[in-house]
TrEMBL record:
It comes from Oncorhynchus tshawytscha (Chinook salmon). It holds the Pfam family Asparaginase_2. Belongs to the Ntn-hydrolase family. This is Uncharacterized protein. InterPro entries: Ntn_hydrolases_N (IPR029055), Peptidase_T2 (IPR000246). One of its GO terms (biological process) is L-asparagine catabolic process via L-aspartate.
Amino acid sequence: MNSGSVACVQSVKNPVKAARQVMEKSVHSLLVGEGAEEFLQGLEESEKPMRAEYFQTDVRRRELTAKLSTGNASKNNHPQKVGAVALDRWCRLAAATSTGGLVGKWKGQVGDTAVVGAGIFADDKLAVTCSGDGDVFLRHTVAQKVASLYHHKGYSLRAACREVMSENLKGSCAGIIAVDAKGNAVVETNVGTVIMWLSSLPTLIHLDSQF
């Protein structure tokens, strides 16, 4: 397994690209904050840093206004996490995910997205990525639990995802997508709306947007 992650970055346009650069061009697996941005800007092919306005949307502004008026960060913000799992023709597996996190979260908070075994996992047998409350996924090492049931308990990929959802994610909005080396693909969620796409070149299929 090889991995790379960035967290608490403020000017990185493409966090997944940045994470891959950490994986391929540093000796570390996770870089955070100013250190991550300094490393990325020091690369020969570095991208131009983006101003804060680039990342702002009307939806997130409204959520921040609501948070400031109540004093609480909602655990059910407008969906904004993106995740992907992939299996190529040589049976190599990969996972990637990116998120802006909860609106109004505490400065310095790192969620599950950047932590292998919590919100993301991939090896030579399966790839998993998750969406939901990052603190819950961190506490329960959700992606690792899916992998463990699949590897060591004989669960099918779907059964492993469902078991982890049932046992660890009750009361929390959550979703898991996964694929294994046999080509089995799984989407499990306990929320009402998920936008999914399946690509098998040269075809791109919009699977579903409602459950």
